[in-house]
Amino acid sequence: MVEGVDGTGKVRRSGHVIVCGCTGLATRIIDQFLASGESVSLVVRQADTVVDAAVARWRVRVHTAGVGIGDALTAAGIDTAIAVVCVEDNELWNLESALIATRLNPEVRVITQLGNATVGGAMNDGSGPGVVLDVADLAAPSVVEACLGISTHHLDVAGIDFVAAAIPVTSAGSLRESFGDLAPLAVAAGSSSSPGARVVTCPGRDHPVRPGDVATMLGTADEFVARGFPIGIRPRTARASEPGPVLRAKAGIRGFVEDANPNFFRMLGVLFTLLVLSTTVLRLGYQKPGMSVLDAIYFSTETVATVGYGDFNFADQPPLLRIWSIVLMFAGLTTTAMIMAFLAELLISRRIAEAAGRRKARFMDGHIVVIGLGAFGIRVARELQARGRDVVVIERSRSNRFMAAADELGVPVVIGDATVPQTLTDARVESASAVAVLTSDDMVNVETGIAVRSILGDRWSDSVDHPGVPVVLRIFDRSMGDAVAERFGFHHVRSTAELAAPWFIGAALGLTVLGTFSVQSQSFMVGRVGIVDGGGLVGVAMQDLSATTRVIALRRAATGEVEYPPRRGTAFAAGDDAYVVGPYEELLAVLEHQRAAARVGRLS
């Protein structure tokens, strides 16, 4: 960072990043910026104890937009900033910060979090530097892959179709012995028995492995086939078939019994008792000329229904029988009216239940349950449905703003508290093929995950040796997610901040992010780095880079050809495009290596 004082006495910075907002995502972004050696200025709408604690932790300058965001951005040095990252909770504030930042400095890269597709599309028209990103869009693919049991990731790199695939290790030895020239990305040690297993990122080919480990390897599809590993995307289960007429009949009867008011069946019992009693009285007491059992049943039903066809009457019968007819008519009328009232109530409740999704959910088997109908949940549900899977959503609030979107997709929504077993039963979690717990409250997600585990019972097991029903938990903090996975046995814990932060950081620093994927709880990023003349990467050989970073291809500026795979002695040249994959912290360190030389040049 270069600092100086201009003619007005203001501090001027060169090469710093301005972050607008002090949210959880902003915290992760700032942490990584500082770890990469970048200078950060923080802009917030108002100061509070959280901001004070953050400033004390990071020792960064903070500017409060008490009067206007423009003044705060100017004070933060937007005229010399390399990027402005807008990640406030309020999307309107993000939009305002992005627009004003662009007006104040048209050359600065502006990276904005916007979930509104219409506004985001208008902002992301390519008319200026920067990009609009949606956290839900960035994080959803990882959850979808976990739900479908997909461990194969296709990466389009420089026009070459690369594949990153998780392959169980079947024999002890080195990675080179088991996988040849395939590039190792990660080894999950003992993942078949421990959800919190240690993940070794980008190990060398001589790294030892043993049965039970899972190695994530990178190469082309042809290379995998040559090593005897046919690659294909295989969902954990096929789409559930349409229920047959017998199943529908059983489900309909069960649904009728569950939805009906218990008093409805009591009134049916009273009516049945009344008809039996009346049949007996008429059979024994009706005179002139007498009645058969069928006649008695017919006349009792006729009297209860107050119909009367003139074929039978009580005019010439004994007084006691006529008194009985009066009692029978009043009792029958009352009972019938109550039964009709309960039927009307049942029809209304069944219509509500249909709107809430319970009726549709009763017919489902092998579906995927998404818990939490937020921006993230609806994105995951939409993607799962696009892949041909049946989806049921559980949502606590009837007034959720995404209810209309779910209805448009035809996704049934069960209204209720997902921590309550009955709600999970209504969504038929016990017969689901996967469950994604995606509410915005980490504590609720952990509690719900434990409740789901109890409902699944023996189907809970989810390991390489005994695959079961995957339960994906959204936990914001990565360290918290690792602790939850280890303590409670969850194999699929995902952090939206962890999955989305690389895109924001990479866009701010000039790294073109091509994709992200997860191995256990470790996030990997695929990106393109332009080798800048005068930057710190010119002349650097592959063997001099961090051991946890893989350069998988180079597009040479001189010839335009793609060099794959680059050898250990291959060096970068100015103008080349380097395609790299690894943990995003390491990729950002590579980018920082290049930027460091530029900063030294400015200082000199």
Describe what this molecule looks like in 3D.
It is found in: Cell membrane. Residues 514-596 form the RCK C-terminal domain. This is Trk K+ transport system, NAD-binding component. Its main location: membrane. Residues 365-494 form the RCK N-terminal domain. This protein is α/β, with parallel strands linked by helices and 604 residues long. Among the domains are: 1-133, Rossmann fold; 255-334, Helix Hairpins, CATH 1.10.287.70; 364-494, 3-Layer(aba) Sandwich (Rossmann fold), CATH 3.40.50. It is 42% helix and 21% strand. The chain is built from 20 helices and 26 strands. The chain has a 6-stranded parallel sheet with strand order 5-4-3-6-7-8, with helices on both faces. The chain has a 6-stranded parallel sheet with strand order 18-17-16-19-20-21, sandwiched between helices. A 5-stranded antiparallel sheet has the order 9-10-15-12-13. A hairpin with a 2-residue loop joins strand 22 (512-519) and strand 23 (522-530). Helix 1 (24-35) packs across helix 19 and helix 3 (69-75) crosses helix 4 (91-104). The relative contact order is 0.10.
Core attributes:
604 residues; alpha/beta; Rossmann fold; Helix Hairpins; six-stranded parallel sheet; 20 helices; 42% helix; disordered N terminus
